[in-house]
Amino acid sequence: MSLESLPCGLTCATLLSDFFTSKSQGSYIDISFHPKMKPFLLQLQSQFLMYDVRNVLQLQSSFSVRIYELLKQYEKIGKRIFTLNELKDTLAVADKYPLYANFKQRVILKAQEDLENYTDIRFTFEEDKRGKAVHSIIFSIYSNKTVVEERKQPESNENDVNEEVSKVYNAIKTWEGINLKTINEWLEKYSPDYVLERIETVKKQQANGTKIKNLMGYLQKLMQQEVLFEIKPLANTKSSTDKKQQNLLQATIEQEEKALESLRISYYENQNAIIEHFFNTNPTVKEHFIESIKLRVDYNKQLNIEENLQRPSFKAAINAKVKEMYPLLFKELDESFKQQETAIKQSLRALGWKG
């Protein structure tokens, strides 16, 4: 068998060039690489994939790790294309996810989310279709500047930052989510006294028994609030403030209530838009879904599908079902909504709101 016909993957033991027995010191083997192997060995330095292990330590999905490795190899090129069958074979899931919608949801979108949150690269992708079926996936690869910059940040140390940053940091260093980047952004917009006043306000609320789940989210909300009110129950406020102050307080509450209602309407509209886009890009899934909802007890058989979908109660039920089956579609929207809703409610309750 010639070297050219050797299958890729045989060990170096196959490439013995000399084998002899020593007359005086016993038997031993002397091994050397065949000269034709030299180009391949030299390529290891330049082509072997090397990456910072921090990029995969937090990836819980083995698919996310593998997709990271596949895309990291092409980071400088910025694009990589797989046929759907190639990608499934590479990830060893050819038989596990026969439906593309499931494969996309649980493998590709999961990897996209994981890489965005934890690694030094991120990606977007396009679906190349042949008819209605997806034939290829086109990955566009980008440097994940958010993660890269966070890793460049020095450890919080009073010797590494100026006095103002250090003072703010020490005031909230035990809070989850705190980092020097956020503090510097605050101090670029506001004075140190302005920032520390709002930190003190949050701490007073905690001391008075107010439960604040997301301290950094709530503090960020207060940073945008130029006027701070002394936090007291509404009944006590009436007895300790004049009528003008009370009217101002009530006006602020009404303004925040309107903001809450507007947020909820926007959330519902964005949710509908996500579902509509999902159905438009996955017509087969939509067809299966429509067939299944015809069996619901609240489906009016005297109306067609589109007319049923216009009924608010039925549409809400459908939205809930889609969210149950495809939760990752709404993850970013839900997290943003929950954070904003919590911040507004906490601000309202701090003003004496009982809603």
TrEMBL record:
Matches recorded under SUPFAM superfamilies: Winged helix' DNA-binding domain
Domain Initiator Rep protein WH1: 23-72
Top-level taxon in the UniProt lineage: Bacteria
Pfam families: Rep3_C, Rep3_N
Family: Belongs to the initiator RepB protein family.
Name of the protein in its database record: Replication initiation protein
Organism expressing this protein natively: Arcicella rigui
